[in-house]
Specification:
Shape: globular
Distance between the termini: 56 Å
CATH topology: Arc Repressor Mutant, subunit A
Radius of gyration: 19 Å
Number of strands: 3
Number of domains: 1
CATH architecture: Orthogonal Bundle
Helix content: 55-70%
Structural class: mainly alpha
CATH superfamily: Winged helix-like DNA-binding domain superfamily/Winged helix DNA-binding domain
Length: 135
């Protein structure tokens, strides 16, 4: 069992980790998962295993360097499995681990919710911008 992270007395003291605590290691993983490239990479891998360049094309706008860093972080967190095959040229495939699938499914629920709600978001932005422009 993991050692609890002390955050002061709260109703959730029985939880082993508390992402709201500065020193909690779950905060780093949350950042990897919810950052722009992490969330999109997990979503793309939920569609099935992919090679690096396939992922780069699917996650439009990500640089090679950022995708590489993202995949390393997600692999280190146990969400992505990297498999290198000894072929010529070398072939490397990336796929979600069981925990990665669970995380990706939750992210995709949020992604689809946001996509469906974009008309409301765009209207709110327009209202906000018009009100601020009138000042």
């Amino acid at each position: 069992m993991e050692t609890p992270v002390s955050t002061g007395a709260t109703a959730s003291d029985d939880l082993p980790f508390d992402v709201f605590a500065r020193a909690c290691p779950s905060r780093e993983t949350l950042e990897h998962v919810t950052g722009r490239w992490g969330g999109l990479t997990l979503g793309a891998l939920h569609e099935g295993p992919r090679r690096f360049n396939e992922l780069r094309r699917r996650v439009d706008g990500v640089s090679e360097k950022m995708l590489s860093q993202t995949l390393h972080a997600l692999e280190r967190d146990g969400l992505v499995h990297r498999e290198a095959q000894a072929t010529n040229p070398p072939r490397v495939d990336y796929e979600l681990t069981p925990m990665g699938h669970q995380v990706a499914e939750r992210l995709l629920t949020l992604i689809h919710f946001l996509e469906d709600g974009m008309p409301q978001v765009l209207a709110a932005r327009q209202t906000y911008d018009e009100a601020r422009g009138a000042l």
